[in-house]
């Protein structure tokens, strides 16, 4: 099989509800870049990368030029064996994991379709029947966030990500954690995510004010060193997200003792191939994994579900149904959450059907 064509679309995604994070970051309107890799067999592979402004060292307008730069390596190549193709791409262009993620995703989709097997089968096989999803709560007033948690809990959700840091006053974050923790009662997992927006001092003050509660802290500060400081000063478990983005940072987070859990996001690491390796390290280290992407619609959601479904339950904390938060749906047959859990597509490759009508006219063809 040979790659003959790369087609890219820009699809703006809109969040169903306003979604605020620390430092004024928002997911309200986000552009998603969709890639279709065409082949001489007629089989097609699909990938998606959706940028949250200011979230990764990446921006959506950088995606297409990076794909164009890699196009000479891709066109004419055999897509079967994504790790081999990604190895050649890495030699051609260093870095740019966000732009490599959608290529890698499309290669895995093609490889699964060629084998007539769902992607989870190629990634180690089905380890769990279905997966828990967490619900992410926008950073607004504490009582409003508690109401959102209650609504989600009524729908079966048992894991809650509480966004923090939208105010100057750190005490509002204490109230947010207290309000959600008390609203959902004992048992569910509650964690507060600053998206790097706190100083170590602020995060320590918040953490110490809730240190009698069953809560986890997520990515309070911009460096692993500061996060480790907060972890030891508060005694609260910690999830790393933004600063754990490759194998060396996964090892560092573990060595520094501040990575009880980690977000393995496809476009942060550079795709399924890298996360497959990262997952083995987390299993060996005992790090609980959230397997997901930064943002996106059905294609990134489906890719996350295949990785999550092929992960042993002992290491899988949760996954994310990003398609729950945004419109439009790009592949309406992709799974959706039910009773706080989500399944995995059973068809070959990603196992979803992209709706051409939603994509509109292609923005670029190589
Ligand atoms: C990247 N987000 C804002 C979107 C996902 O829901 C998770 C969250 C995060 O930072 O963890
Ligand atoms: Mg996070």
Radius of gyration: 20 Å
Structural class: alpha/beta
Q: Name the poorly predicted regions.
A: none
Helical content stands at 25-40%
How would a textbook summarize the main sheet? 8 strands, parallel
Shape: globular
Topology pattern, helix = H, strand = E: EEEHHHHEEHEHEHEHEHEHHEHEEEHE
The largest beta-sheet arranges its strands as 5-6-7-8-9-10-11-12
Question: Oligomer, anyone?
Answer: single chain
Which cofactors or ions or other ligands sit in this model? Answer: (2S,4R)-4-hydroxy-1,1-dimethylpyrrolidinium-2-carboxylate, magnesium ion
Fraction in beta strands: 15-25%
Q: What separation lies between the terminal Cα atoms? A: 18 Å
How many helices does DSSP assign? 13
DSSP E strands, number: 15
Provide mean pLDDT, rounded. Answer: 97
Written overview of the protein:
- With 366 residues, the protein is α/β, with parallel strands linked by helices.
- Helix content is 37%, strand content 20%.
- It has helices at 63-74, 82-92, 97-115, 119-122, 142-154, 171-184, 200-209, 224-234, 247-255, 266-269, 272-285, 298-309, 356-359, and strands at residues 3-15, 29-39, 44-50, 131-132, 135-137, 159-163, 189-193, 216-218, 238-240, 261-265, 288-292, 316-319, 326-327, 341-342, 364-365.
- Strand 5, helix 5 and strand 6 (159-163) form a beta-alpha-beta unit.
- The radius of gyration is 20 Å and the shape is globular.
- The chain starts with a strand and ends with a strand.
- The mean pLDDT is 97.
- It binds (2S,4R)-4-hydroxy-1,1-dimethylpyrrolidinium-2-carboxylate (0XW) and magnesium ion (MG).
- (2S,4R)-4-hydroxy-1,1-dimethylpyrrolidinium-2-carboxylate (0XW) is lined by residues 21, 27, 52, 136, 193, 195, 241, 263, 294-295, 320.
- (2S,4R)-4-hydroxy-1,1-dimethylpyrrolidinium-2-carboxylate is lined by residues 21, 27, 52, 136, 193, 195, 241, 263, 294-295, 320.
């Amino acid at each position: 099989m040979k790659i003959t064509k790369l087609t890219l679309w820009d699809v703006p995604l809109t969040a169903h509800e306003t979604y605020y994070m620390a430092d004024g970051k928002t997911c309200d309107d986000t552009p998603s870049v969709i890639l279709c890799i065409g082949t001489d067999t007629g089989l097609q592979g699909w990938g998606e990368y959706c940028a949250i402004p200011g979230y990764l060292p990446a921006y959506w307008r950088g995606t297409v030029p990076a794909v164009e730069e890699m196009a000479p390596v891709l066109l004419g190549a055999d897509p079967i064996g994504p790790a081999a193709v990604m190895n050649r791409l890495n030699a051609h262009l260093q870095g740019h994991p966000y732009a490599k993620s959608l290529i890698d995703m499309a290669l895995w989709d093609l490889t699964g379709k060629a084998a007539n097997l769902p992607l989870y089968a190629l990634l180690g096989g089905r380890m769990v029947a279905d997966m828990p999803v967490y619900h992410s709560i926008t950073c607004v007033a504490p009582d409003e966030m508690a109401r959102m948690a209650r609504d989600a809990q009524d729908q079966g959700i048992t894991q809650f990500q509480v966004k923090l840091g939208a105010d100057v006053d750190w005490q509002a974050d204490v109230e947010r954690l207290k309000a959600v923790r008390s609203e959902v009662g004992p048992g569910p997992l509650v964690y507060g995510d600053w998206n790097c927006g706190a100083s170590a001092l602020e995060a320590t003050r918040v953490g110490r004010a809730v240190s009698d509660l069953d809560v986890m802290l997520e990515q309070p500060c911009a460096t692993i060193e500061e996060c480790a400081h907060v972890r030891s000063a508060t005694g609260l478990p910690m999830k790393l997200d933004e600063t754990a983005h490759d194998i060396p940072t996964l090892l560092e987070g573990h060595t520094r003792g501040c990575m009880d859990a980690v977000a393995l996001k496809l476009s942060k690491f550079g795709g399924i191939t890298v996360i497959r390796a990262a997952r083995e390290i987390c299993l060996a280290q005992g790090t609980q994994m959230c397997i997901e992407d930064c943002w996106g619609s059905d294609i990134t959601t489906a890719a996350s579900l295949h990785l999550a479904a092929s992960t042993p339950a002992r290491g899988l904390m949760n996954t994310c149904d990003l398609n729950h938060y945004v419109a439009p749906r790009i592949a309406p047959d992709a799974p959706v959450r039910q009773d706080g859990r989500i399944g995995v597509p059973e068809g070959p490759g990603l196992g979803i059907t992209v709706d051409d009508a939603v994509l509109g006219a292609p923005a670029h063809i190589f």
